[in-house]
Specification:
Elements: E1 4-9, H1 13-24, E2 29-35, H2 39-48, E3 56-57, H3 60-65, E4 71-74, H4 81-90, E5 94-97, H5 105-118, E6 122-124, H6 132-142, E7 149-156, H7 165-169, H8 171-174, H9 178-181, H10 184-193, E8 199-205, E9 217-223, E10 229-235, E11 241-247, E12 250-255, E13 269-274, E14 277-280, H11 291-301, H12 311-330, E15 334-335, H13 343-347, H14 360-363
Length: 370
């Protein structure tokens, strides 16, 4: 086929700063329309792409009515993902969606079911999987150079706030705070351990001095079937960052200048330490931030390869993060998978107050109960 004709649904900061440079560097795809409920955002992104005013829309349904669109990229706030993805699938368009996939597991299920019914592809912007240092680390693990992976720690405690009032002040739109927003670290930990956790424990808190309506600090422990443990510590704050992997034969350390946080910064070195000594593991320069997810999606739409990240992968990351909120509310680990009748499965953080024994101090982080 020719170029994949892509519609951008949502024209916020993540699209302008990350998606547009990635798409500009990618062959085989062409953006043919954009949509945002804020006309000024649609105009700004549309103008940057050279699109005429008639291709800058304010309703995703009008974009889906256009006949010359093969696929859409959803870059709107999380609570809108289910409706847009279901509509896009029903129109026969392939879908790549920003993380988190949804604000509840039930919403993620609905998105997957809609894509399956329509026979379209559904993928996620899980871009941390394509960071060169993370790919290099996975090759070290897969090659047995660490032995069996026993313990991993990802510290992301100095994350700069990306923006958008809804992230801090409207949990019904965001679906939660830093834990759900940064589930990048969950799917990356799953990749390191080459599996899905069987149990999650977490604690969350609000540390900002100004009033907000979500948590901005979380520490999470993931227990894997083979006995491996993963620790994720994340905050919109001023703490430290880094990644450390411990195996039965050695350790792999990500070296960051000033112990800065992971995310927008690349490490200065990956150092492997074993009984044989210390070596630096090479990794190439980073591509544009969102290039990996778009590339694998476009190639899959063109029939060149299967998706590397599927809707099921997005659902898993959401489920693990929401299990962390449940564990924090109960003050004890939560087993996976979550039962479909669990209020958190159905409603996300909005269902925490329906969980027997949930601590009011955690439930009330997300504002009035509904």
């Amino acid at each position: 086929m020719g170029d994949v004709r892509l519609g951008l649904i949502g024209c916020g900061k993540v699209v302008e700063v990350f998606h547009l440079p990635a798409l500009a560097a990618l062959e085989g795809v062409r953006v043919v329309a954009v949509m945002d409920t804020d006309p000024s955002r649609a105009d700004a992104v549309g103008a940057a792409l050279g699109l005429p005013p008639g291709r800058r829309l304010a309703d995703h349904r009008r974009l889906l009515d256009l006949p010359d669109i093969d696929a859409v990229s959803i870059g709107t706030p999380p609570a809108s993902h289910r409706e847009i993805a279901v509509d896009a699938a029903a129109s026969g368009r392939h879908i790549i969606c920003e993380k988190p996939m949804a604000v509840s597991v039930a919403d993620a299920d609905a998105m997957i079911a809609a894509a399956r019914r329509a026979g379209v592809l559904l993928s996620l912007h899980h871009n941390y999987l394509w960071f060169p240092e993370n790919r290099a680390a996975q090759e070290v693990i897969a090659g047995g150079r660490l032995g069996r992976l026993v313990f991993s720690v990802i510290d992301c405690l100095g994350l700069p706030y990306f923006g958008g009032r809804w992230r801090l002040h409207d949990p019904h739109v965001s679906g939660g705070g830093i834990l759900l927003d940064m589930l990048h670290l969950i799917y990356l930990t799953n990749a390191f351990h080459d599996g899905l956790p069987r149990r999650v424990d977490a604690r969350i808190a609000r540390i900002r001095e100004e009033p907000i309506r979500v948590e901005d600090f979380a520490t999470v422990r993931l227990e894997y079937p083979g006995g491996g443990l993963g620790q994720v510590n994340v905050s919109w704050g001023l703490g430290w960052g880094g990644t450390r992997l411990m195996g039965t034969r050695g350790r792999l350390i990500y070296h960051y200048r000033h112990f800065t946080t992971v995310n927008y910064e690349r490490p200065d070195a990956l150092r492997l330490i074993t009984a044989e000594g210390e070596v630096d593991v090479p990794f190439p320069p980073a591509p544009p931030f969102s290039a990996g997810p778009f590339r694998q999606f476009v190639e899959a739409v063109r029939g060149a390869r299967p998706l590397e990240v599927t809707g099921e992968d997005g659902r898993t990351a959401v489920e693990v993060a929401l299990a962390g909120y449940r564990a924090a509310a109960l003050g004890e680990p939560t087993d996976l998978p979550l039962p479909p009748e669990d209020p958190v499965y159905i409603h996300g953080v909005a269902g925490l107050h329906r969980v027997a024994g949930a601590a009011p101090a955690v439930v009330d982080l997300f504002g009035p109960r509904v």
